[in-house]
Amino acid sequence: MIKEAILIDGKYHADLILEKLKKNIEYQKKENNLVAKLAIILVGSEPASAIYVRNKISAARKIGIDTELKNFEENISEKTLLAEILRMNLDNSISGIIVQLPLPKQISKEKVINAIDPAKDVDGFHPFNVGVLNSGYSGGFIPCTARGCLELIKLTQINLEGKNVAIVGRSNIVGRPLAALLNREDATVTLCHSKTTNLASITSNADIVVTAIGKPQFFSSEYFSEKAIVIDVGINRIRLEPNYKLVGDVAFESVKNKVSYITPVPGGVGPMTIAYLLTNTFEAMMRNKNKSIK
Fold first, then answer.
1. Is the sign of the CA dihedral 259, 157, 201, 181 positive or negative?
2. Are residues 93 and 198 in the same domain?
3. Angstrom distances, CA of residue 151 to CA of 155, 199, 241
4. Are 105 and 169 members of one domain?
5. 90 plus 162 within the same structural domain
6. Whole-angstrom Cα distance, residue 254 to residue 163?
């Protein structure tokens, strides 16, 4: 009998989060006349970024979060973009602000992230929110993908205390914040990257493996043990004539017959990311409802 991993259905659980969030949004609008609003800045017309933005807007509108999209030409100046962020910071109707990455070369990603009011930084990328997370304090915004990954891991009901976790990818979006979150849960985390040697020996000895390197179907079954929980963050678009297909960093069809739990792509981490982006937007509205901007 061929073993098959238990599928961790991110879409199902994201829908549950959004259903509950929708009720909270409706209540706040009815009882307190509060409306959450997400402002999105998109620079250029890169197809993948445009798709991500459309998905966020669609999900927001379905649950009653207003959206404002500012789509700028690729050649926009850094000064103009920073001025737009300042305007959004000062607009009391806006609960949260996100800037879709990547940005063109003439614009500093660091300057743009630093310009967003930390109280509206619903992506959780501002140094203030990063500092809160890594200090172990509460009250900051947690990056949405990292938060989603942690919740998917917890759905397996594993006791994280003392468990070995290998995260492959050290970005500020996934790897680093997820390592901080898992440390809070008393897991033992190894943060791997492109310079890591003997990667398979690390991942194959881990209880949990999170892959976030953006290489389609890179991780074959040899990278995992039979006990492993595999969280695949990768979203890669590959050509399969005559169409394209989305695949993860993990060779899903072969790996699912070896490991204990696995997330699919699509339908795993992606929906959870959007669910927590909108959760952060609602939380920003609630935190800022009495804020007076001078």
1. positive
2. no
3. 6, 25, 36
4. no
5. no
6. 25
Range of the structural domain that residue 156 is part of:
143-270
Q: Is residue 127 part of a domain?
A: no
Handedness of CA 157, 159, 160, 163 (dihedral sign): negative
- Measure the CA–CA gap between 78 and 282, rounded to whole angstroms: 29
292 pLDDT exceeds 50? Answer: no
Q: Is the Cβ–Cβ distance between 81 and 110 less than 8 Å?
A: no
Spatial contact of 67 and 54, defined as CB atoms under 8 Å apart? no
Q: How much is the pTM?
A: 0.94
Beta bridge partners of 43: 72
243 shares a domain with 168: yes
Active site (catalytic) residues: 56, 100, 123
The DSSP letter of residue 261 is E
Residues 108 and 179 occupy one common structural domain: no
Determine what percent of the chain is predicted with pLDDT higher than 90: 89
Distances from the Cα of 73 to the Cαs of 2, 38, 53, 108, in angstroms?
Answer: 52, 21, 15, 16
pLDDT in tens, 70-87: 999 999 999 999 999 999
**Can you give the pLDDT at residue 1?**
52
128, part of any domain: no
Look at strands 37-43 and 96-99 and give their pairing.
parallel
Alpha-carbon distances, residue 277 vs 123, 143, 227 (angstroms)? 7, 8, 31
Return the pLDDT at 288: 85
Closest CA to 86 of 127, 45, 117: 117
Answer whether residue 173 is part of any domain: yes
Mean pLDDT of the chain: 95
Q: Model confidence over 4-46: pLDDT tens digits? A: 999 999 999 999 999 999 999 999 999 999 999 999 999 998 8
Identify the CA nearest to 39 among candidates 149, 115, 142, 127: 115
Total domains, the chain? 2
